């Protein structure tokens, strides 16, 4: 038996099967609950009337009371418009219609009092409102006194007369019955302590608020509830993971101390020291570690991973280090080998192209325990790869590995679960990390090593192309190398390929004396690899590529990153690409090439890049511009579930929600206390419908 809120939307009076089908397709509204949680995105203030003399162009929507003095038709053909002169005792304003002129003429008369509502604009000394809403003045609407909700709809729905007003009508109809079925979902002590509005009132006031104060209270209540349940779910996962999965206890740090005293190639930054300390505390707790380390490109995550591995090896266990591509695995292998050789620690690499004879030796050494560190790609996850005692798994660029693959990694720990350390160079704003990775412990490396010069970023338009070429030439003459990157947008792969080839041609013509590399998605893996390696060895001076180079290739000699059509990239991607240069001691540059015309958002992105090299600051701006779903790739983020909260604005509410959820679980982990029954009921109801999108392993 479906509950009231599970009823199909077509059964609501005034909807019916045809409108229901449209609502499902366009707005994903299937049930009464879906409609009720289709919240307004703004409200029009109908509480106040203005005199015509008070009208100003910078006002949002306003309403005035007056009478039409006259109507006239202006313009001809398709440009014809109807202009009504609307007056009160303080002055006149023009009300203009470009469409539906006959309909307006048949409904509106001169000399009758009306309320007109719309957005004022100014032309010279005159004010006008285009396509105002008009209704005859009555005793009831004379009082004003309500905030009109405005709902998201779509062009298709509007064509079928399902506009915001129609949705508002449906909502009124639904609320008449729904009010009797809405039950409280937060514990009474919490409501009392924070003086929250009750659930029933909040649901009515969010749709039809009496005034701005009531709306504010309703919003706060619903946001806090939404974020509280997300955090509760994540924290419960974390608790159950810690209880169900004991970790191997690491007390010995002998190798770490030896390396630190005798071989450390550079002074660790304060941030690196702090993160190593956090990891060591996890190791000694006897609980299985699941930690995410975030840090910009070049912040020293690999060194942190290596020091963590030394602790694991000191305690007689083995380590696996996984990277998403062969090039990256090779790069990490070389970097880690330099460190490991100083201590006489054996390290091997395993990728899809490892020879059979190499694999045989690796397998034997892994099973006998003589191989402490294995670096590789997904090949490490294959069932035939068996460790004697896997103690720590390090995963680079977490979002490139699926959940199922990580689960296989866990099974490799005989009789105990390996600790998991995940590294990402994608800066995730704190609010998003708390929600996306709420069941993980998050560490942040927010300092760059001493001696690194910040990358200088410039914005150039197409008209400055010759200047950009000249700049590149100077740098190549100094012995440096250059990346030129083109966007890759799946829907228009042919267009992108053409852009890339055109770019390659014009670079070849402009720099006939230098060798060029080219890398794009249509090439075979071995051809890509060959071109990359030529660039790494310095045989080619310019690498023209699509975004395949985004993750991880380390070419210290490359000092310029030119990003073509920079306005077509998201901020986090621009930041990632910029991080490909600036690996050496030389000054590096990033040049953002754009067309001469930019959208407001395009301008904001380019401006942010020019002004800041702080990945977290950039991620915060990205979150504001794009919203959380887009930022992480909606399918994986699970944040599409956010009905009313906005992570870019509701940081404080999120922090409160997390601490409330944390307190509640500390006192009553099983939610058995009588006052927490409502929470238990809500959690069970959510469990039916929600997927777990935050688990790392």
Automatic annotation (TrEMBL):
Gene Ontology biological process terms, A to Z: DNA recombination; DNA repair
GO MF annotation list: 3'-5' DNA helicase activity; ATP binding; ATP hydrolysis activity; DNA binding
UniProt keyword terms in alphabetical order: ATP-binding, DNA damage, DNA recombination, DNA repair, DNA-binding, Helicase, Hydrolase, Isomerase, Nucleotide-binding
Record domain Helicase ATP-binding: where: 282-445
EC number(s) from the headed UniProt entry: 5.6.2.4
The keyword Hydrolase belongs to this UniProt entry's keyword annotation: yes
Reaction equation(s) it catalyzes: Couples ATP hydrolysis with the unwinding of duplex DNA by translocating in the 3'-5' direction; ATP + H2O = ADP + phosphate + H(+)
Gene3D superfamilies, sorted: Nucleic acid-binding proteins, P-loop containing nucleotide triphosphate hydrolases
Entry keyword Hydrolase: yes
Family matches, as Pfam families: DEAD, Helicase_C, RecG_dom3_C, RecG_wedge
Domain Helicase C-terminal: from-to ranges: 464-629
The organism's place on the tree of life at top rank: Bacteria
Entry function: Plays a critical role in recombination and DNA repair. Helps process Holliday junction intermediates to mature products by catalyzing branch migration. Has replication fork regression activity, unwinds stalled or blocked replication forks to make a HJ that can be resolved. Has a DNA unwinding activity characteristic of a DNA helicase with 3'-5' polarity.
PANTHER family: ATP-DEPENDENT DNA HELICASE HOMOLOG RECG, CHLOROPLASTIC (PTHR47964)
Sequence similarity: Belongs to the helicase family. RecG subfamily.
Listed name of the protein: ATP-dependent DNA helicase RecG
Organism, as annotated: Marinoscillum furvescens DSM 4134
């Amino acid at each position: 038996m479906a509950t009231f809120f599970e009823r199909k939307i077509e059964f609501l009076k005034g909807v019916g099967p045809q409108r229901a089908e449209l609502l499902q397709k366009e707005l994903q509204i299937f049930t009464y609950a879906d409609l009720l949680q289709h919240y307004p995105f703004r409200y029009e203030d109908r509480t106040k009337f203005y005199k015509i003399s008070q009208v100003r162009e910078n006002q949002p929507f306003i309403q005035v009371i007056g009478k039409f003095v006259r109507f006239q038709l202006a313009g001809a053909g398709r440009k014809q418009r109807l202009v009504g002169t609307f007056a009160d005792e303080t002055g006149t304003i023009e009300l203009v219609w470009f469409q539906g002129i006959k309909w307006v003429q048949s409904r509106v008369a001169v000399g009758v009092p009306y309320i007109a509502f719309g957005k004022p604009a100014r032309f010279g000394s005159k004010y006008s409102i285009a396509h105002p809403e008009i209704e005859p003045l009555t005793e009831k609407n004379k009082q004003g006194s309500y905030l009109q909700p405005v709902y998201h709809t779509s062009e298709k729905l509007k064509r079928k007369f399902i506009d915001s007003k129609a949705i508002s009508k449906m909502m009124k109809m639904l609320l008449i019955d729904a009010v009797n079925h809405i039950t409280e979902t937060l514990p009474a002590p919490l409501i009392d302590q924070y003086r929250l509005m009750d659930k029933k009132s909040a649901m009515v006031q969010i749709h039809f608020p009496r005034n701005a104060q009531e709306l504010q209270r309703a919003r706060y209540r619903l946001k806090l509830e939404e974020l509280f349940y997300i955090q509760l779910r994540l924290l419960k996962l974390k608790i159950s993971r810690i209880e169900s999965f004991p970790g191997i206890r690491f007390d010995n740090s002998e190798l770490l101390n030896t390396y630190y005293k005798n071989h450390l190639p550079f002074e660790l930054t304060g941030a690196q020291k702090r993160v190593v300390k956090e990891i060591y505390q996890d190791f000694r707790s006897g609980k299985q570690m699941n930690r995410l380390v975030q840090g910009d490109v070049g912040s020293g995550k690999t060194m942190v991973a290596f020091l963590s591995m030394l602790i694991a090896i000191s305690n007689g266990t083995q380590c696996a280090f996984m990277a998403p591509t062969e090039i990256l695995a090779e790069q990490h292998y070389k970097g880690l080998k330099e460190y490991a050789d100083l201590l006489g620690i054996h390290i091997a690499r395993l990728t899809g192209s490892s020879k059979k004879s190499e694999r045989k030796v690796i397998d034997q050494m892994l099973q006998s325990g003589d191989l402490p560190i294995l670096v590789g790609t997904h090949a490490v996850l294959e069932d035939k790869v068996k460790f004697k005692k896997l103690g720590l798994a390090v995963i680079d660029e977490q979002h490139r590995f699926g959940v199922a693959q990580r689960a296989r990694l866990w099974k490799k720990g005989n009789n105990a679960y390996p600790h998991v350390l995940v590294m990402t160079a994608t800066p995730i704003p704190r609010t998003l990390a708390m929600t996306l990775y709420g069941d993980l412990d998050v560490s942040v490396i927010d300092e760059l090593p001493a001696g690194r010069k910040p990358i200088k970023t410039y914005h150039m338009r197409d008209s400055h192309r010759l200047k950009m070429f000249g700049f590149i030439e100077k740098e190549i003459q100094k012995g440096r190398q250059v990346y030129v990157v083109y966007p890759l947008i799946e829907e228009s792969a042919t267009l992108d390929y053409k852009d890339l080839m055109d770019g390659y041609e014009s670079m070849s013509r402009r720099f006939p004396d230098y060798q060029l590399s080219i890398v794009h998605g249509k090439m075979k893996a071995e051809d890509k690899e060959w071109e990359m390696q030529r660039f790494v060895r310095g045989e080619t001076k310019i690498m023209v590529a699509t975004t395949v180079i985004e993750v991880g290739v380390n070419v210290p000699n490359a000092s310029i990153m030119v990003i073509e059509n920079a306005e077509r990239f998201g901020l986090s991607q621009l930041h990632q690409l910029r991080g490909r240069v600036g690996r050496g001691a030389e000054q590096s540059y990033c040049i953002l090439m754009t067309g001469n015309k930019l959208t407001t958002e395009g301008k904001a992105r380019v401006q942010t890049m020019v002004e800041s090299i702080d990945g977290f600051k950039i991620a915060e701006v990205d979150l504001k511009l794009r919203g959380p779903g887009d930022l992480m790739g909606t399918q994986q983020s699970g944040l599409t579930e956010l009905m009313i909260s906005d992570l870019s604005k509701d940081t404080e509410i999120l922090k409160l929600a997390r601490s409330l959820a944390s307190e509640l679980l500390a006192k009553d982990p099983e939610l058995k206390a009588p006052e927490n029954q409502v929470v238990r009921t809500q959690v069970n109801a959510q469990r039916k419908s929600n997927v777990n999108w935050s688990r790392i392993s």
